[in-house]
Amino acid sequence: MSAHRIGEATIYRGDCLEILPTLGPVDHMITDPPYESVIHRAAAEGRIQRTDGQAPPRGFEFDGIDAIRDEAARTMVAAARGWLLAFALAEGVGAWRDAIQAASGKWDTTLCWVKPDATPRFNGQGAARGFECIVSAWCGTGHRRWQGGGKRGVFTHPTAKGGHPTAKPLALMMALVQLYTRPGDLICDPFMGSGTTGVAAIALGRRFVGIEIEPGYHEIARRRLEARVAQPLLPFDVPATHQPVLALEDAG
Ligand SMILES: C[S@@+](CC[C@H](N)C(=O)[O-])C[C@H]1O[C@@H](n2cnc3c(N)ncnc32)[C@H](O)[C@@H]1O
């Protein structure tokens, strides 16, 4: 395990199931764990295609979430004092709900990320996937707090292009950070990948702790966070819906 401090961010390289229990509590978990194994199998069998010029994944360096979901949910619920947000395929939402509730997290709802540029299904044997889910649960005591009023949990953002095969759009992560957290809060992403959650958190005046097991992705996250820390904060008291988010996308 190695820790690296970058401004208000600390990132670790290693297995989050081992590292997370050794850290103190955090305010919120906002994370993008590996997808369900169905997608990992499709990638390994060369059944994923892309239309954006990027090479389609031929398998991932990491396994699907299924085998470690229960332990990941237990570990994250135990460490969080506020929200747990985790990306999932629709197929994984029920399993996430069961795992979070078994860990005594308070299930809230499922949000939806609509991908207007999702790859069509080329074999014509059914609909292409055009969205991902984000499961949400409250891990603290007292009232759940968010900054969205009565807003619907539906977000439309083009997919991200960058140094990680499943990187999330920075604009989407910024919207989640603004809606679910407050300036100064400590946000944790135990499946950090290339660090998009951390870049969004730091840009908006939150603190961040991230964990990534793959050295190459950890290195990308380190570079992105260093670049972000060197820039001024964004106006974090402006509602998410009013942020000029498209202009804020980084090159990844
Ligand atoms: C879906 S990706 C996250 C992508 C990220 N949201 C981004 O924008 O780049 C999930 C990441 O979790 C990492 N991972 C898988 N198992 C892990 C574990 N046990 N501990 C820490 N990281 C892990 C993988 O290496 C992968 O980079």
Topology:
Elements: E1 2-6, E2 9-13, H1 16-19, E3 28-31, H2 37-44, H3 69-79, E4 83-88, H4 93-102, E5 106-114, E6 131-138, E7 154-156, H5 170-180, E8 186-189, H6 196-203, E9 207-212, H7 215-229
Parallel strand pairs: 2-9, 3-4, 3-8, 5-7, 8-9
Antiparallel strand pairs: 1-2, 4-6, 5-6
Helix pairs in contact: 3-4, 5-6, 6-7
This protein binds S-adenosylmethionine (SAM).
> What class do helices, strands and sheet pairing give?
alpha/beta
- Rough shape? globular
As for the CATH topology, it is Rossmann fold
Q: What portion of residues is helical?
A: 25-40%
Mean pLDDT across all amino acids: 88
Roughly how many Å is the radius of gyration? Answer: 17 Å
Task: Give the total of domains.
Answer: 1
Q: First CA to last CA: what distance? A: 25 Å
Strand % is: 15-25%
Bound molecules: S-adenosylmethionine
Give the helix tally.
7
Strand order within the widest beta sheet: 1-2-9-8-3-4-6-5-7
The arrangement of helices and strands along the chain is EEHEHHEHEEEHEHEH
Polypeptide structure, described:
- The protein is α/β, with parallel strands linked by helices and 252 residues long.
- It has a single domain (2-248), classed as Vaccinia Virus protein VP39 (Rossmann fold, 3-Layer(aba) Sandwich).
- Helices cover 27% and strands 20% of the residues.
- The chain has helices at residues 16-19, 37-44, 69-79, 93-102, 170-180, 196-203, 215-229; strands at residues 2-6, 9-13, 28-31, 83-88, 106-114, 131-138, 154-156, 186-189, 207-212.
- The protein has a nine-stranded mixed sheet, sandwiched between helices.
- α6 (196-203) links the parallel β8 (186-189) and β9 (207-212).
- α3 (69-79) crosses α4 and α5 crosses α6.
- The two termini are 25 Å apart.
- Residues 238-252 have low confidence and may be disordered.
- The structure holds S-adenosylmethionine.
- S-adenosylmethionine binds at residues 15-17, 32-34, 62, 164, 166-168, 190-191, 193-194, 196, 211-214, 217.
- The site of S-adenosylmethionine has 21 residues, from α1 and β9.
